[in-house]
Description:
Layout lengths: L6 H12 L3 H8 L3 H8 L6 H11 L3 H7 L19 H9 L3 H13 L20 H10 L5 H11 L6 H8 L7 H11 L3 H8 L12 H12 L5 H14 L14
Helix pairs in contact: 1-12, 2-3, 2-4, 4-5, 5-8, 6-9, 6-13, 6-14, 7-13, 7-14, 8-10, 9-10, 11-12
Amino acid sequence: xxxxxxxxxxxxxxxxxxxxxxxxxxxxxxxxxxxxxxxxxxxxxxxxxxxxxxxxxxxxxxxxxxxxxxxxxxxxxxxxxxxxxxxxxxxxxxxxxxxxxxxxxxxxxxxxxxxxxxxxxxxxxxxxxxxxxxxxxxxxxxxxxxxxxxxxxxxxxxxxxxxxxxxxxxxxxxxxxxxxxxxxxxxxxxxxxxxxxxxxxxxxxxxxxxxxxxxxxxxxxxxxxxxxxxxxxxxxxxxxxxxxxxxxxxxxxxxxx
Length: 257
């Protein structure tokens, strides 16, 4: 298991990769250079600082909370952990639709009324934060994906086809991250693969290509579906399946199939 280097080291790697100084990050985020400097040298970031630097870096704030090993605030968590059952079906069926229908499905997700949060979000078998693999898996769990959902979606949108238990092993530090996995996880997270490689310290052997349109759409659909209750997610999943008509199978590695 690769020991987690600490958020300051991860952030330093990211800034170095982007050729961005701590002062420049501070200016973009509207914080002081000293606040950024303290984090880069090992101080635990505050909630307020993470919320400010996330958009300056082009990240979802929830991902920075996970990477920093901090508890995710309720307002950043998925609305309903029970929607985990439907999230992978929404995305996989949507990706097998023509692009216009895929866009309509996304607009439906965005248009559904925001329901009240009834309980604190608690993903099943939440990955520990002892190593980079655990943090990446937890980032996916905060997109309402369980291990089985990860296996289904990654098999459709990337060249990776692994068992659900393998994703659990990555999350619990029993299987190392590889450059291929980092590239594939990045596609589903909607994060630049080179950024995620810098954060995890797992460098690709060659420059990873940009994700195909299907993977980019999958990342957006998965992220936006976080706002749905289980009942809403089921409705959207059933609609996506009905739009496919009689087709019941899924293409593996959909991009380029």
